[in-house]
Amino acid sequence: VIRNTFRTALLFSLTAAISIGFVLANYSRRDNGARQEHTDPADQDNTAAIKAFADVARVLRHQRCLNCHPNGDRPRVGDDRIVHRMNVQRGPENKGMDGLHCSACHQTENQPGSGVPGAPTWHLAPLSMAWEGLDDHQLAQALIDRDKNGDKSHEQLLEHVAEDPLVGWGWEPGEGRSLPPLSREEFVAAFKTWLDAGAPLPPKGKTSY
Ligand code: HEC
Ligand code: HEC
After folding, report:
1. Ligand 1 pocket, residue 65 CB under 6 Å
2. Considering only CA atoms, which of 161, 159, 155 is closest in space to residue 187?
3. Phi and psi angles of residue 185, each rounded to the nearest 5 degrees, phi first
4. pLDDT in tens, 122-179
5. Residue 9 needs a FRET pair 20 to 30 A away by CA distance; which of 25, 170, 172, 193 works?
């Protein structure tokens, strides 16, 4: 009898120990799960801002913008981004070579007859503002780098994308030229969302569009 009672007690405590272990394991698993789902409000803001930046990048990488923000010394033309004909070159001030300035052909408005695009101060973006070949991280970094962006603060950058006539030309490029994937208003709003969150940099090595 004594041996039986002892065995029952042993069995009981073993069962109890296993149940407690099971409950504890489950509890800690639930706790882990909860910890994984939990996100800081700050992280959430960054996620929205980085998503907004992907929209910004979609526009910046569109032909209308990239053709004037090329890597080399030649503007690009058209949706297939061919090198500008007539040996047009960047020149020392991004306005063409002496004798063949951009303004020799490009006026302050599109020329419907000849198809020459135009807007006030038509010239090439300086090399520090070349976006070709940059991933999202590098692109974001270049935009806010005052050594590269023409010494623009966040407010001045936003003003530039909202007001500048060369940016505006992208949405009024003349017949036969495609438009950026967002409206200018949507683009400016996305830019603002990104800047308002402190212009967080997207992860390295990724290109959203
Ligand atoms: C005709 C050429 C031209 C076109 C087209 C053009 N840009 Fe630019 N862009 C420039 C020049 C030149 C500058 C430098 C202006 C300055 O610093 O004041 C510039 C500067 C910028 C800057 C600020 C500098 C920087 O790198 O952050 C932004 C942003 C910008 N452009 C956006 C755009 C967008 C968006 C489009 C298309 C919708 C576009 N640009 C189309 C010539 C162009
Ligand atoms: C000899 C005249 C001439 C000169 C000089 C000239 N262009 Fe052009 N450019 C044209 C013509 C014509 C077109 C239209 C070509 C077409 O659409 O097939 C054009 C188209 C462009 C486009 C294409 C826009 C797009 O998205 O399709 C860009 C960008 C451009 N020029 C930039 C410049 C810049 C910057 C300079 C000065 C460094 C310059 N051009 C000098 C005649 C000229």
Report:
1. yes
2. 161
3. -60, -45
4. 999 999 999 999 999 999 999 999 999 999 999 999 999 999 999 999 999 999 999 9
5. 25
